Amino acid sequence: MAQDGTHASGSTQVTLYTIGYRGRKAVDLAKLLPAGTLVVDVRLNPYSPNPEWSTDIGRHLAAVGLDYRAERGLGNLDYKTGGIRIADPARVAAIVDELDERDVALLCACSASADCHRLEVARLVTAARPGTKILHIELPTRRAVLASEREQREQL
Ligand SMILES: [Zn+2]
Asked: At what angle do helices 92-99 and 118-128 cross, to 10 degrees?
């Protein structure tokens, strides 16, 4: 994975990443994603008790060289029941447009992509844009998750 942000300009090879923020900080995302990646928040409700992943999220990500946008239309209407129903699947077109320009990362809270609707969003993107390279960034260590949860409790 490119860590230095030097993407060959003119290259059409972009990557669609998927990542969960639980157990991570904005600065960790910057280590995992190339600089200039557009982080698309696909939570139905892009809020968290942790301000770093709530209303301040764009500022935190900008500080580490990542762009940010929320796409609530790509949120999961059935997240409370464990089902998956994308609110407005047509919003996938916005992701496809961005992939013509740069790398995109689908962001949700869930640590593992297997438990998350971002897998379905990624599938919709590849259906609309065949050949898109996808990289699911999986969960951090158990210890990192515990540390993050402890931190979150302290902030409440
Ligand atoms: Zn999720």
From this structure: 60
CA 117 to ligand 1 centroid distance, Å? 5
> Does 7 map to a domain?
no
Compute, in angstroms, the gap from residue 9 CA to the centroid of ligand 1: 32
pLDDT value, residue 142:
64
Q: Is residue 10 domain-resident?
A: no
Cα 121 versus chain centre, distance: 11
Average pLDDT, stretch 135-142?
A: 78
Mean pLDDT value of segment 88-113: 95
Ligand 1 centre distance from Cα of residue 36 (Å): 23
The model's pTM is 0.83
DSSP state, residue 75: S
For the chain, how many structural domains are there in total? 1
